[in-house]
Amino acid sequence: MENALPLVQVTGATVRFQSDTALDDVDFRMFAGEVHSLMGENGAGKSTLIKALTGALPLDAGVITLDGRTVQFATPHDAQLAGISTVYQEIDLLPNLTVAENIALGREPRGRLGSIDWPAMRRLAREALADLGLDIDPASVLATHPLAVQQLVAIARAISTDVKVLVLDEPTSSLDFDEVAELFRVIRELKSRGVAILFVSHFLDQVYEICDRITVLRNGRLVGEYLTTELLRIDLVQKMLGRSAAALAARPRLDGYEDPDPSVTLSARGVTVLPGIADADLDLVEGEVLGVAGLLGSGRSELARALTGVDRLEAGIIRIDGQATRLSSPRRALSVGVVYSSENRRTEGLIGELSVLENITLALQAQRGILRRIRSARQRELAASWVEALDIRPPDIDRPVGTLSGGNQQKVLLARLLALSPRVIVLDEPTRGIDVGAKVEIQNLVGELADTGLSVVFISAELEEVLRVGTRVAILQNGRVVDVLPSDGLTTDSLLALVARPEEDES
Amino acid sequence: MTSTQVAPARESHVVSSRHRFMTRHASWIPVFAAIAILVAMVIGAQIYFDGDFLSPPLISSILLDNSYLLILAVGMTFVILTGGIDLSVGAVMSFTGMFGASLLRDGLPSGVVAPVMLACGALIGLGIGVLVQYFDVQPFIASLAGMFLARGLGFVVSLNSIKVTDSSILWLQRTRWHFGDWYVTATGILALLVVAVGALLLAYTRFGRTIYAVGGNEQSARLMGLPVARTKLLAYVVSGTCAGLAGVVFTAYTGAAYPLNGIGTELDTIAAVVIGGTLLIGGSGFVVGSMIGVFVYGMIKTIINFLGVDQSWTRITIGGLLLLFVVVQRVIVARSARRR
Fold first, then answer.
1. What stretches in chain B show pLDDT beneath 70?
2. pTM
3. What residue segments make up the domains of chain B, in order of their start?
């Protein structure tokens, strides 16, 4: 492979957005028949490079060669014609059209008179789907299928052309375990056909499982290109972050829960919101982080919503400082100092078009009511102090939140909740979809918050993270809290065993 | 309304074929609803008038009286499918009629005048399309500007009615081919032809499918390499051209052009398209549905005529139906959003 000429060669790629340089003199290459991963934190320039490669964004400087010829793509269509197909993170298909059209539109088979040959188009779609082991009706409307199937349709579209380079941008984020395995089977199959595959994912396990070679970017610059077999994970993370491994080590914890007289801030007894959560008991001590671990569907989010007044309790009681409190709405919960950060930060949290400033002060203003407006100087001061405290980058409070990276968006959401000076904060998947570096920052931040006396419920699908952050870990199974254990005695493996333990075994 | 939940049935192939229909053709359901309403109206009127309502000449006259509206509705369907709206069509129809009539009065042959009328409509449509596509103006505002422009131009041509004496234009309307009690005029044939061409364009060409794609998700359509800009532009050109053709037909229908013609016609057109099952958010709908919508509109008008009550009841009924259909659309959209 080393001797062969690269299929794709990008030299000196530079892309600027006004004053920001998103991509700075980056070299990148891909060989036929390899799976290549592009790694980097959010904002490292991964998406920019992908967009430049696939014709969605013009290069300000630099050259792209494909098969030895210099190419310039004005549109994604040009790139497709040249053999570079892309499957984007958000499924970019047309839900109102048929599966066949979603696969073939743009190069649909034509009959006489140039009209669309529908039977041929359906045949073509059926073949492309069969390649992926998918047997669905090509004439059905795309929106009638589940997301995972839609994702596979997107891939079917990408590979139904004479594809030389296939770009997969976070293709696994909406797939479950079996679907990922299925996707990997397809990737290996394409690889054996000599397709060069660019696989971008923030799941390190998946990258190490499927990729031959890794290119690392940081701050828009090239860090290096490595063979996967020769790059240790810890080195990879280090290169992505540009920090030493020591900085990533776990923070020291205050042993709050061992306090002889722990003051229970929030206590839940018999909390039930069917079908998600049944008869759950929890005690939350002042200044502790309670990790919540459970498999998908075990009731993690439902627990969070029940504790914070989003969903009405069907049974059970919640006491705040020993006082029974009816949390009938998030507003009511807020007034007693219980706040909730949703797992869907884009749809249920931030307002992308509004500035960082507005997003941070939104809830505080709402709490005070419309007649007691916070003076704008005070607002700015407040927002700026949170931006500084949480190290939100770029530190520009007038920037629309939608333009920030995922990790920084999460911090803005945290800042909004913290501005309400809560006693209890429930974080549902606060680190989902953000890169490794930002994850560590958020985790450390949560720890620091707890050290100041805040009680935190930390929900995450990643057991490792739950253990790292949580002082104690509540284990959820089928909507029940089956155990609450100190995290010091647990390892990821033993926690996994507890979480996955079949119900019959508990006694 | 049938539910999407497939009920357990005795024969499994019944379930699967129904499921197959629902996954393939759910967007036809509003069209069937419009057909059902049309049929219900006809049956109701037939019973109310003791079987003295429905007759071949009556049905023939519905096509005759509404051929201009049918042509406008086809053009409007293209625009609404992209998620846009064209408020200019009534005024454009009126202006092209005035302009054409004045050219005919000046002695130009109809073989020149009719194409000029179509071209005028196309040009105004192109202008609106450019505003929408390249200047990012809301379709509502862009076509409102087009409407005022066309209305004003009509008054510039003449403040008074212009009588048309050209024989070939009048032939379009006056010649009736009879088939027993049935008859059809050239304008009717023209309108049906426009429906057929529109339906084929939408179903069997890349342009047509791109119209749906743009209405579904413009960004995705662009990433899929479809010619989004050109298609949106062309949708307004199609609508403008249809308005020009409607100008020809309407001039033939009334035998004269008048600058106050077609006030509010754009709204009748939109009503017909929506009643015909096209979603106002774009991406779902059919030209055939719009034709049904026009027939529903024509049928209401006829029934009200028969009843001998004031024509304002036409508007009231249309208003009620429109409300009903918009609510039905919301339900459909909400349900498909929930499924996703």
1. 1-15, 332-340
2. 0.70
3. 31-46+53-334
With an 8 Å Cβ cutoff, are A114 and B205 in contact? yes
A466 in Cβ contact with A444 (< 8 Å): no
- Chain B positions in Cβ-Cβ contact with residue A56 (cut-off 8 Å): 223
From chain A, the residues in CB contact with B223 under 8 A are: 56, 76, 86, 88, 92
Strand-strand pairing, A35-39 and A213-218: parallel
Q: What is the pLDDT of residues A63-98, one digit of tens each?
A: 999 888 888 888 877 888 888 888 876 667 888 899
Burial track A35-62 (b if 16+ CB lie within 10 A, e otherwise): bbbbbbbbbbbbbbbbbbbbbbbebeeb
Task: Give the number of beta-carbon pairs within 8 Å between A and B.
Answer: 88
Q: Nearest Cβ partner of A96 from B206, B210, B284?
A: B284
**Digit-coded pLDDT (tens) for B212-253:** 999 998 888 887 878 899 999 999 999 999 999 999 999 999
The pLDDT of residue A506 is 39
Q: Does A137 touch chain B (CB under 8 A)?
A: yes
A31 in contact with B, Cβ within 8 Å = no
Q: Where are the domains of chain A?
A: 8-248, 256-337+422-505, 350-418
The CA distance from A86 to the nearest CA of chain B, in Å, is 9
Name the residue facing B224 among A105, A118, A137 (closest C-beta): A105
Q: Which of B5, B6, B23 to mutate to test the interface with A (most CBs of A within 10 A)?
A: B23
What is the third-level CATH fold of A256-337+422-505?
A: Rossmann fold (3.40.50)
β-strand pairing of B162-163 with B256-257: antiparallel
Q: Is the dihedral of CA B98, B101, B102, B103 positive or negative?
A: positive
**Which three-class secondary structure string do you get for A62-105?**
EEEEECCEEECCCCHHHHHHHCEEEECCCCCCCCCCEHHHHHHC
Tally the residues of chain B. 340
d(Cα B9, Cα A83) in Å, to the nearest integer? 48
Q: Does domain B31-46+53-334 have CATH number 1.10.3470?
A: yes
| CATH architecture label of A8-248 | 3-Layer(aba) Sandwich (3.40)
In sequence order, what are the beta bridge partners of B184? B177
Interface membership of A68 toward B (CB under 8 Å) = no
In A, which residues are within 8 Å of B82 by CB distance? none
- State how far residue A78 is from chain B, nearest Cα, in angstroms: 8
Give yes or no on whether A8-248 and A256-337+422-505 have one common fold.
yes
Judge: A97–B216 Cβ closer than 8 Å, yes or no: yes
**CB neighbourhood size of B167 (10 A):** 9
Q: Is the model's pLDDT at A260 over the cut of 50?
A: no
Cβ neighbours of A84 in B, within 8 Å: none
Give the DSSP H/E element, type plus range, for residue A486: strand A480-486
The answer to whether residues A143 and B340 touch, using CB atoms and an 8 Å cutoff, is yes
What is the length of chain A?
A: 507
